[in-house]
Amino acid sequence: MVEGRHNENAAQTLSLDGKKSEDTQQQIIRETFHLVSKRDENVCNFLEGGLLIGGSDNKLIYRHYATLYFVFCVDSSESELGILDLIQVFVETLDKCFENVCELDLIFHVDKVHNILAEMVMGGMVLETNMNEIVTQIDAQNKLEKSEAGLAGAPARAVSAVKNMNLPEIPRNINIGDISIKVPNLPTFK
Amino acid sequence: SVPSSPIRLRELIRTIRTARTQAEEREMIQKECAAIRSSFREEDNTYRCRNVAKLLYMHMLGYPAHFGQLECLKLIASQKFTDKRIGYLGAMLLLDERQDVHLLMTNCIKNDLNHSTQYVQGLALCTLGCMGSSEMCRDLAGEVEKLLKTSNSYLRKKAALCAVHVIRKVPELMEMFLPATKNLLNEKNHGVLHTSVVLLTEMCERSPDMLAHFRKLVPQLVRILKNLIMSGYSPEHDVSGISDPFLQVRILRLLRILGRNDDDSSEAMNDILAQVATNTETSKNVGNAILYETVLTIMDIKSESGLRVLAINILGRFLLNNDKNIRYVALTSLLKTVQTDHNAVQRHRSTIVDCLKDLDVSIKRRAMELSFALVNGNNVRGMMKELLYFLDSCEPEFKADCASGIFLAAEKYAPSKRWHIDTIMRVLTTAGSYVRDDAVPNLIQLITNSVEMHAYTVQRLYKAILGDYSQQPLVQVASWCIGEYGDLLVSGQCEEEEPIQVTEDEVLDILESVLISNMSASVTRGYALTAIMKLSTRFTCTVNRIKKVVSIYGSSIDVELQQRAVEYNALFKKYDHMRSNTNPSVTVITIQASNSTELEMTDFVFQAAVPKTFQLQLLSPSSSVIPAFNSGTITQVIKVLNPQKQQLRMRIKLTYNHKGSAMQDLAEVNNFPPQSWQ
Predict the structure, then answer these.
(1) Which segments of B503-609 does DSSP mark as H helices, in order?
(2) GO terms for CC (chain A) (predicted)?
(3) Is B324 within 8 Å of A44 when comparing Cβ atoms?
(4) Residues 6+ apart with CB under 8 A from B571
(5) Closest chain A residue to the Cα of B165, Cα to Cα
(6) How far does the CA of residue B440 sit from the closest CA of chain A (Å)?
(7) Quick one: which of B247, B249, B256, B289 has its CA closest to B157?
(8) Of B93, B245, B253, which is closest to A85 when you measure between CB atoms?
(9) Which residues in chain B touch residue A124, judged by CB atoms under 8 angstroms apart?
(10) Dihedral, CA of residue B190, residue B196, residue B198 and residue B199, to nearest 10
(11) Per-residue CA distances from A67 to A10, A63, A109, B62, B645 (Å)
């Protein structure tokens, strides 16, 4: 089972199948992206897989969220409608773990996405579908990592401490009379 | 200079995203790879984790990362969870059975399976379950089996899926997991239940013995399913108002396997299936997923007929659902059941035919396949009308399959020969360039066998290509027919419709146009040339024109055509008398006798005898005297009737006078060319 996320700029794939060469993987991504991105909004979410994705037994099942496509490649042992629900659970879990997940989160924290997926799918089979359970397990493992981090982790902890402070929103423009001051774009604390 | 520490993953990602071209990105990657390589060489434990994480990112973008494989192993061997996490991830992404290096992991995994921290054990189980080779699985199966019996639900569920992988890799080990399955279904934890059902499913699918053994679990599975449905709202497992739909679907699948071909098991699950089928809330996708699975199970086991009808009607309702996905899965399952429950599916035929007009390609394809499956003797006219209309308007990717399907259905269920020919014509003219190559000889065969339709067929085909001879399969079939039945065409013998007036020249015009056209494929030209040749025995006024055409193509650049033309030319010259032969089972042989001696032969008589199944007719010889020195010959025509098309053999006797004496020669001729008697 291959899961991939695609947007207009970058295609990312996580393959837990591990049987294909890098070239083949890239080809699969390209073909998948091509097939999926030209789909209309009001067609069904199932695509018969292309030639590279292993023949007629395999299907692509995808869901479209804003600029992202979540694509699962499955064989006939999976329920098509069930996979749609699974993708939803995956996205909601990402949302919980990243706190209002956005595209940038997924790009900059690829390893974390891998970890979350690993708690849901194992060896191409569905492992856990309970969102709270998954989030609990992820949190516990992240805590374990943090406790090992020592000095190197200090800045990260400071950052997350600041993140949890309730800072008011930073104004973008300060208008006083006829003076307009543009506030420089400060890097976010994420 | 002070070496700076390797950059963080986030930093790398940020940098790469600023690249404006592929080349720029490649340069950045190469630079970073070089930095990583030297860092690896320094054997620095602190930053290994960070470097491998970066390597995995670059690998994901498609760049080679094999030089990080050993580093992954070092990370796995580290004491820190952080290191192991990335190390195992790297192993799963970069390693597989093809690299010997993966075996080095075996010991680490073995140790980690027994680690004091459950998350480390989890990592090991995950990696083994994803990419463990047969050797690794053999070595570590015992550890997995131990963990399958633990009370730690986090580990137990992972162990179950890991066991599935082990069984797939080393099927002989399946037996060893049997004891551990004994109380898997007693678990309260849904994750464990879920993966346990997956494990049980795998075992049942692989072994009929296991299947028989696990049938006794049916009551327990039914109970679990019942609890899920009846339990009311459970925030723990709720998805859109339904309690753990994923588990319900899994259980329904296992029940399907257990109930198949088994009356008792099927009966035991009958009630619960009816309950789920009637009570499931269908406003959201989750409900439909369960309903769909229930339908599939009902159709697959030995359910009572009332339940089956209920299931098919649910599918019929699905067909009318606004949600495309629901329509799609409905069509898919109807396709699976159309063989066994043909009549029930027939009731939804009009809805299915409507789906041919859907905008969604996936749905159209399913609807087309299902439509063909539903064609029978009663509905063939109506269905073909719809399918021909579909052929006209569908996307090119469907046309070849649709055309083939129509030919097949027409052959099976054609209500009349006229209808059959009309249907073929319609396909050839509508989708003539999408028809498969192998269809042409089949169609020719079909037309040959419809003897009373020959005149009608050749007329319609002639008219079809008059306007447009670009569709190759159409032109090929038409050329062949014209070549074979051209006489019927020009004599205006058509009964089915108003016969057209067409002259021999006009017919040759169109065939020659095909020959010259740029659009004609080589094969098509071959058909056209052969057709022209055949018409030389059917036409009366234009034989010279035909001879001319054929001789022109004797020097054609196209080797195929050239060869044909040369052979046809030869037929004109050497076997002219045979060409006028209208009875194919009569072989005409011309003998020529010559005399190389210095004295003439007189009273020359040729006699011949043939086997019993043949009949012989000797026409008068040209003379009874053969002059000497090869200065003249006697020719005589023999006609042999060979209705059984047996190999021609002849005993001949020559009697003559030479140098004042009576001479006699006897001989057997067995080497007649096959064309003369086949």
Answers:
(1) 504-516, 522-535, 543-552, 559-574, 576-579
(2) AP-3 adaptor complex; axon cytoplasm; cytoplasmic vesicle membrane; Golgi apparatus
(3) yes
(4) B533, B578, B579
(5) A123
(6) 28
(7) B247
(8) B245
(9) 130
(10) 170
(11) 11, 11, 18, 22, 74
Taking residues B213-229, report their average pLDDT. 93
pLDDT at B376: 92
Cα–chain-centroid distance for residue B654? Answer: 64
Residue B142 has pLDDT above 70, yes or no: yes
Q: What is the DSSP letter of B184?
A: G
Rounded to a whole number, what is the distance in Å from the CA of B430 to chain A's nearest CA? 27
Residue B361 to residue A145, Cβ atoms within 8 A: no
- Nearest-by-CA chain B residue for A45: B325
Chain A residue with minimal CA distance to B160? A127
> For residues A94 and A116, is the Cβ–Cβ distance under 8 A?
yes
B656 three-class SS: strand
Q: What is the pLDDT of residues A19-47, one digit of tens each?
A: 455 666 677 777 777 778 877 777 888 88
Nearest-by-CA chain A residue for B327? A44
Beta carbons of A88 and B296 less than 8 angstroms apart: no
What confidence tens digit (pLDDT) does each residue in B23-70 have?
999 999 999 999 999 999 988 788 899 999 999 999 888 888 888 999
Q: Which residues of A touch B65 (CB under 8 A)?
A: 22
The mean pLDDT of B392-399, rounded to a whole number, is 89
Average pLDDT of the segment spanning B495-507: 86
- Tell me which chain B residues have a C-beta less than 8 angstroms from the C-beta of A16: 92, 130
Question: ipTM of this model?
Answer: 0.74
Instruction: Specify the pLDDT at position A10.
Output: 45
Q: Among candidates A179, A101, A99, A97, which has minimal Cα distance to A138?
A: A97
Mean pLDDT in residue range B137-165: 96
| pLDDT surpasses 80 at A148 | yes
Residues of B in contact with A156 (CB under 8 A): none
Q: Which of A23, A57, A127 should be substituted to probe chain B, the one whose Cβ sees the most B Cβ atoms within 10 Å?
A: A127
Q: Do A43 and B194 touch (CB under 8 A)?
A: no
Measured distance CA(B285)–CA(A82) in Å, rounded: 8
Give the rounded percent of residues in chain B with a pLDDT score beyond 70: 97
Q: What is the helix (H) or strand (E) element at residue B323, kind and residue range?
A: none
Residues 6+ apart with CB under 8 A from B314: B277, B291, B294, B295
* Closest approach of A175 to chain B, Cα-based (Å): 33
| Structure-block tokens of residue B1 | 């200079």
Residue linked to tokens 């094969």: B523
Choose the mutation target among A79, A112, A143 for the interface with B, i.e. most B CBs under 10 Å.
A79
What does the angle CA A40 – CA A45 – CA A51 come to, to the nearest 5 degrees?
A: 90
- CB-based contact B217:B228 (threshold 8 Å): no
pLDDT tens-digit map of B595-632: 888 888 999 998 888 888 888 888 888 888 988 888 88
Mutate to test the interface with B, among A2, A22, A81, A104 (most CBs of B within 10 A): A81
Per-residue exposure over B466-479, b if at least 16 CB sit within 10 Å of its own CB, e if not: eeebebbbbbbbbb
Contacts of residue A185, defined as CB under 8 A and 6 or more positions apart, other chains included, come to none
Helices within chain A (DSSP H only): 22-37, 80-98, 103-108, 110-118, 131-149, 154-164
Q: Which pLDDT value is given to residue A157?
A: 57
| Mean pLDDT score, B500-519 | 90
Top pLDDT among A1 and B393 is at B393
Average pLDDT, chain B: 88
Residue A1: band (very low, low, confident or very high) from pLDDT cuts 50, 70, 90: very low
Contacts of A89 in chain B (CB under 8 A): 239
| Secondary element (H or E) of residue B334 | helix B324-337
**Quick check: B194 and A14 CB within 8 A?**
no
Q: Which residues pair with B594 in a beta bridge?
A: B633
